Amino acid sequence: MLSDDEKQRLHQIERQLEEEEPGFAAEFSRPRAHRPSRGWPYTTLAIVAGLMFLLGCLTGETVLILLGIGGLPAALVARHRRSERRNR
């Protein structure tokens, strides 16, 4: 938390910046645009791994089943870790 003196100094700096450089100050007052999620590659990998698992179950291919079993949780964990790192 900021002390009262720090808050007052911050407001002084803000006013001075608005007076000296109004265009520059306006850039800071605008809300930032929401960036779209970049987790789509992990979602795509999870879907592909799930489809590989299903295809392996239907055809009896052990390799596809193992790839699906390993790939699906790996993609989901990677996406979860990325979202946690982004929210810090």
TrEMBL record:
<feature type="region of interest" description="Disordered">
    <location>
        <begin position="1"/>
        <end position="36"/>
    </location>
</feature>
<feature type="compositionally biased region" description="Basic and acidic residues">
    <location>
        <begin position="1"/>
        <end position="16"/>
    </location>
</feature>
<keyword id="KW-0812">Transmembrane</keyword>
<keyword id="KW-0472">Membrane</keyword>
<dbReference type="Pfam" id="PF11239">
    <property type="entry name" value="DUF3040"/>
</dbReference>
<dbReference type="InterPro" id="IPR021401">
    <property type="entry name" value="DUF3040"/>
</dbReference>
<keyword id="KW-1133">Transmembrane helix</keyword>
<feature type="transmembrane region" description="Helical">
    <location>
        <begin position="39"/>
        <end position="56"/>
    </location>
</feature>
<protein>
    <recommendedName>
        <fullName>DUF3040 domain-containing protein</fullName>
    </recommendedName>
</protein>
